[in-house]
Write a sequence for this structure.
């Protein structure tokens, strides 16, 4: 059974068509990422699903309850946790008083457990909270009543990297317990770890829904490579290479020193292997990870790669590689490459 079903959802503000015939479903026990750049219409969808505004046309059900039926949706909300994009609380009271209020309305059986993980300063007034502490307080209130479905809009906004990791680990555990999570994000790396499937929204229209593994395979990797010599984009004329940009500088080390970005500074990085690709590598003494001495020009090239990693390695093997970084392509690159021909 689907925990959340959206059918032809449209929200037209007149000058802006924020959601345009959006249709998708989120299954029970699934973590579903709703992806898109800022302004794509993600928050509009969430606010409509939560009953804060009415759709222009179409509709949806949440835990089997019709979002356009106020009394029906109220019954569903007892089993829903919600975190808005910019959580706002009464700034004149403490975090503890905020949670006491929420507990009196919807329950708080998991409150103490959540406070061990997110730990906002409960005895300080909310006006003294940093953005990150407000977000942590919002996360506690969203999960404290042990809901069946949690809807979150940019849940890691304002959190430091350690707390983002704690959040990701928490969501993984909750998914294993059977919780359904619907979260929006514009950062692909944020959903890579926790999401089972994603929906891609662009200019109010749902471009696709895909399993996260399939999406990551299609996005490709961002490659930055520095090679000895003066070379141009044609040196990387290879299936799967897109948008090559090269610049050449004098990276020589005529006195026997290492070139800029040499072995002393270099950290080899690779992402998860693509089709038949190679796994992550660590530098080894005298191995390929050691940057060679270069006397003469060095060319830095950047590009997005969606092909077979082995083909790329073979091509790089024809050059003297000074430095190589491979990382996940930004979500914006995904939109430009795969969805640029869709109507806005």
């Amino acid at each position: 059974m689907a925990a959340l079903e959206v059918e032809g959802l449209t929200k037209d503000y007149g000058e802006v068509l924020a959601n345009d015939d959006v249709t998708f479903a989120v299954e029970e026990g699934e973590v579903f990422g709703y992806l898109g750049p800022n302004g794509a219409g993600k928050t509009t969808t969430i606010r409509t699903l939560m009953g804060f505004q009415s759709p222009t046309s179409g509709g949806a059900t949440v835990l089997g309850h019709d979002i356009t039926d106020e009394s029906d949706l109220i019954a569903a909300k007892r089993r829903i946790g919600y975190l808005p994009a910019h959580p706002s609380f009464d700034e004149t009271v403490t975090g503890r008083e905020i949670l006491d209020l929420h507990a009196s309305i919807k329950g708080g059986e998991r409150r103490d457990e959540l406070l061990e993980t997110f730990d906002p300063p409960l005895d300080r007034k909310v006006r003294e909270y940093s953005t990150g502490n407000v977000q942590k307080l919002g996360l506690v209130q969203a999960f404290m009543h042990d809901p069946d479905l949690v809807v979150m809009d940019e849940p890691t906004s304002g959190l430091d990297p350690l707390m983002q990791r704690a959040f990701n680990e928490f969501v993984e555990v909750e998914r294993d317990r059977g919780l359904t999570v619907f979260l929006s994000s514009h950062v692909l790396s944020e959903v890579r770890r926790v999401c089972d499937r994603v929906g891609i929204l662009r200019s109010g229209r749902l471009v696709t829904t895909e399993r996260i593994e399939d999406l990551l395979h299609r996005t490709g990797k961002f490659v930055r490579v520095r090679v000895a010599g003066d070379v141009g984009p044609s040196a990387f004329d290879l299936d799967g290479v897109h948008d090559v940009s090269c610049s050449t500088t004098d990276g020589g080390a005529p006195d026997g020193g290492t070139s800029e970005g040499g072995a002393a500074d270099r950290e080899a990085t690779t992402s998860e292997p693509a089709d038949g690709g190679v796994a992550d590598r660590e530098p080894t003494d005298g191995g390929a990870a050691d940057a060679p001495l270069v006397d003469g020009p060095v060319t830095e090239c950047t590009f997005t790669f969606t092909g077979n990693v082995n083909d790329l390695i073979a091509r790089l093997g024809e050059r003297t590689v000074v430095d190589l970084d491979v990382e996940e392509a930004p979500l914006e690159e995904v939109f430009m490459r795969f969805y640029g021909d869709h109507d806005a």
